[in-house]
From TrEMBL:
EC number(s) from the headed UniProt entry: 3.1.3.99
Protein name according to UniProt: IMP-specific 5'-nucleotidase 1
Coiled-coil regions, chain positions: none
Pfam families for this protein: ISN1 (PF06437)
Assembly information from the UniProt record: Homotetramer.
Enzyme class: hydrolase
Catalytic reaction equation(s): IMP + H2O = inosine + phosphate
Biological process according to GO: inosine salvage; nicotinamide riboside biosynthetic process; nicotinic acid riboside biosynthetic process; nucleotide metabolic process
Transport listed as a keyword: no
């Protein structure tokens, strides 16, 4: 289900008026925010003398704090950690719970059967009753085989006291999905930041994924990058992000290059390669009737409301921000160091506020970008459905790789329309796509369009 119509169990934080002393200082805070007063102790009775030390702790790179020891998990990284909030998923949590009474092998044996039943009857399956928020499985998942494969290297079954953690279960699910998807795959889509390259970076010439992307397309698979980044009428801004890949595509045959697309602004812009450059595909060629029906007045109203909610939320959280407004998106970027939890709170607050309305009946995606919080018009599910229709593939033939599948992430919507793999970083994407390519090679026994894999050349 798309975030726009998802029923979220959100418990908002206590209102500022619940915090002792805050009501008294509201006027003063307002003045501070407007720059009319000197910053001072934020709450009565709270000693602000440590604030500069906190600031230093969250803004200093780990390695500069205490030399090599700072690389341990006990240092500044703990404050900026993304692990806990990035690892929330009711299905994986359910698997973890089962390990209280089952071995990992027993869990996989049971869940594989339940998942098969769910694949056939997603609305009335036993798994759906146990995990009500579970979406669809578009392929069967051979979880026992995936567990055996994982166990071969990590010896999970030899552990007597420590059950698999969230990431280990995520890896097993990914392996099962990769093997299942490889048999009929015709479209792979990648999130960009955090999946193909580090947050805020670009796809440069030495990116390992370039060879893999080309190998997939040479094997006859369509590839698209589906990203929140949106630059209307500025294809060169997209080119800057993927310049390394675009340079490599210049040496590929047209039939291969034609299998590459970029979907920007979650679902608002589609680009293809035309004579070595990225060019927008005319809306009439790919947008659904539903997307074409969005009115500019409604989009403006949605973004106005979102901007107001973002600023109100940031003010409540005492987070100084600057606003970024685009044609189909609005976001805030902190202008002072902060931590992931604050951005998460802000993203969920804005999402809840937009659902509470009154707002135009438009789909939207309010998400924590890791370094910012944005609200985009539409979401990746709508974009992927349009793309799948455009290239002519069905849900079981498509696979999306992304790093943000929690409720505040912008990849979660893709679960509504195709299979997914959930990665934690670009290194994991590289790893899983290598497995996928090996499977496709086994499946085909040869490479589409001839020639060895590009990464082997
Ligand atoms: Mg991402």
């Amino acid at each position: 289900m798309a975030p726009c119509c998802r029923t979220w169990a959100i418990r908002t934080s206590p209102l500022p008026s619940c915090v002792a002393g805050v009501a008294k200082s509201l006027e003063r805070e307002q003045a501070e925010l407007q720059g009319d007063a000197q910053p001072s102790t934020s709450q009565e009775g709270v000693d602000s003398s440590t604030s500069e030390y906190w600031q230093e702790l969250i803004s200093t790179p780990d390695s500069e704090l205490f030399g090599s020891r700072a690389r341990s998990a006990s240092d500044a990284a703990v404050l900026r950690r993304k692990g806990h909030l990035k690892e929330q998923d009711k299905f994986i949590n359910f698997l973890q719970e089962m390990h209280r009474t089952h071995t990992c092998l027993e869990v996989m044996q049971k869940v594989e059967q339940w998942a098969l039943e769910h694949h056939r009857s997603p609305r009335s399956s036993r798994l759906k009753r146990m995990v009500p928020s579970l979406g669809s499985f578009f392929t069967p998942l051979r979880l026992v085989d995936a567990f055996m494969e994982y166990d071969e290297f990590f010896a999970l079954s030899r552990r007597h006291f420590i059950p698999p953690n969230f990431a280990e279960l995520r890896h097993i699910l990914n392996i099962a999905q990769i093997h299942a998807s490889a048999t009929s795959l015709r479209l792979v889509t990648f999130d960009a930041d955090g999946t193909l390259y580090a947050d805020g970076a670009h796809m440069q010439h030495d990116n390992e994924m370039i060879g893999h992307v080309i190998d997939l397309m040479r094997a006859g698979v369509h590839v698209a990058i589906v990203t929140a980044a949106g630059y209307p009428n500025e294809p060169e801004r997209f080119e800057e992000r993927f310049d390394g890949l675009l340079a490599a595509l210049r040496y590929q045959p047209k039939a291969v290059v034609n299998r590459f697309h970029v979907m920007g602004g979650e679902c608002n812009y589609l680009l293809r390669v035309d004579r070595g450059r990225l060019a927008f595909v005319p809306d009439s060629e790919w947008k659904s009737e539903f997307m074409a029906s969005w009115r500019e007045d409604d989009i403006h109203e949605l973004l106005e409301t979102a901007e107001r909610l973002l600023l109100e939320g940031a003010e409540r959280l005492r987070l100084p921000v600057s606003v970024v407004r685009k044609e189909r998106a609005v976001g805030v970027v902190p202008s002072a160091p902060t931590i992931y939890e604050v951005l998460e709170e802000l993203a969920l607050t804005v999402h809840a506020g937009l659902l509470a309305g009154p707002t135009p009946n438009l789909p939207f995606c309010a998400f924590n970008g890791g370094n910012d919080v944005f609200v985009d018009v539409g979401n990746k599910s709508i974009g992927l459905e349009a793309l799948m229709r455009y290239v002519g593939v069905g849900p079981a033939q498509a696979l999306h790789a992304g790093d943000r599948f929690t409720d505040s992430g912008n990849d979660v919507a893709t679960r509504d329309c195709c299979s997914i793999i959930w990665v934690a970083n670009p290194e994991e994407t590289d790893f899983f796509i290598k497995i996928l390519l090996a499977d496709i090679e086994k499946r085909e026994g040869r490479w589409g369009n001839g020639g060895p894999p590009a990464s082997a050349q």
